[in-house]
Design goal:
The chain is an all-beta fold and 279 residues long. The protein has strands at residues 25-26, 30-33, 50-58, 69-81, 90-98, 101-105, 108-112, 116-120, 127-129, 136-144, 157-160, 167-168, 176-180, 191-198, 203-208, 214-220, 222-227, 230-235, 239-242, 248-251, 258-265.
Length: 279
């Protein structure tokens, strides 16, 4: 059993007596999709996936965030897929937050529990099934792999958050720390998936402004996040989607830890020509 806490979407619908105002924001620099928006009425279903429903949190949009898609999937018992990925050039990352799943890769069968992370390279055959007694929830991030002459494609691997040391950011005494699922020195990888953890009172003490696109899913706690010119309150289950160069900062006010799953694109030259269609 994982030693960490992970938010699981509740689905359903709010009662008719609820006010319709909420915290959802969509701008030309960022989006905030609150946990209360992840309801039954907005789920999708995917070809070749059985007994599975999907909240699509991010997808490429021209002029906005263009490199990735992010699915939050709920897989019922006996559900899953024998043909999960339709795009031969797509790589994927799976992060389980609830239930139990069985992932089959060329290197064997792997049991995934909350905190499990799996990287699936492009062209890799894989299947995913829920053999448990209850539903399972998993994040699935997809990105077209950018090949580089002389660099091999990364291999598939499976790990768990509990097996990885949390690395404190310099000068923070560990109050702002990162759990890195992918080795940042491995140039074969063109995306990173991390878990970022802030202890109460910790901050990102400057407005980060950089080329990397971000997808941030809040796993635990709450904070005030600076997005472009706005301060936005976020909590467990909220999703933030940032385009390149959108200024960002954070203040974790407590009372508990603030943690999120972070996607970013890395390690490649800037594309100076129109590239292939993105998924």
């Amino acid at each position: 059993m994982s030693s960490q806490n992970y938010h699981i979407p509740q689905g359903g619908l709010p009662p008719q007596t609820d006010l319709l105002s909420g915290r959802a924001v969509f701008t030309n620099a960022y989006a905030v999709i609150p946990n209360g928006v992840q309801r039954d009425i907005v789920v999708s279903h995917l070809p070749h996936w059985d007994n599975t429903r999907v909240w699509v949190l991010a997808r490429p949009l021209s002029g906005f965030a263009e490199t990735f898609s992010h699915y939050l999937m709920e897989i019922a018992p006996a559900g899953g897929s024998e043909k999960p990925e339709p795009e031969k050039d797509a790589q994927g990352a799976l992060f389980v937050v609830g239930g139990k799943l069985i992932l089959n890769l060329p290197n064997g069968e792997h049991e995934l529990r909350p905190g499990s992370f799996a990287y699936v390279p492009p062209g890799c055959a894989w299947t995913l099934r829920n053999r448990g007694e209850g539903p399972a929830q998993v994040h699935w991030i997809r990105k077209l792999y950018q090949r580089v002459p002389g660099l091999a494609v990364p291999e598939a691997f499976v790990t768990n958050e509990d097996a990885i040391d949390r690395l404190g950011m310099p000068g923070t005494e560990g109050r702002w720390a990162t759990t890195r699922f992918i080795d940042p020195a491995d140039m074969r990888h063109d995306m990173h998936l991390n878990i970022v953890t802030f202890e109460p009172g910790a901050t990102i003490p400057f407005a980060e402004t950089h080329v990397m696109e971000h997808g941030l899913y809040v796993l635990e706690g709450k904070a005030v996040y600076r997005l472009n010119r706005d301060w936005v309150e976020v909590e467990a289950g909220d999703y933030m989607w940032l385009r390149a160069f959108c200024p960002q900062a954070c203040y974790a006010g407590g009372p508990g830890r603030f943690r999120y799953l972070l996607y970013k694109d890395v390690n490649r030259h800037m594309n100076l020509r129109q590239g292939p269609p993105l998924i």
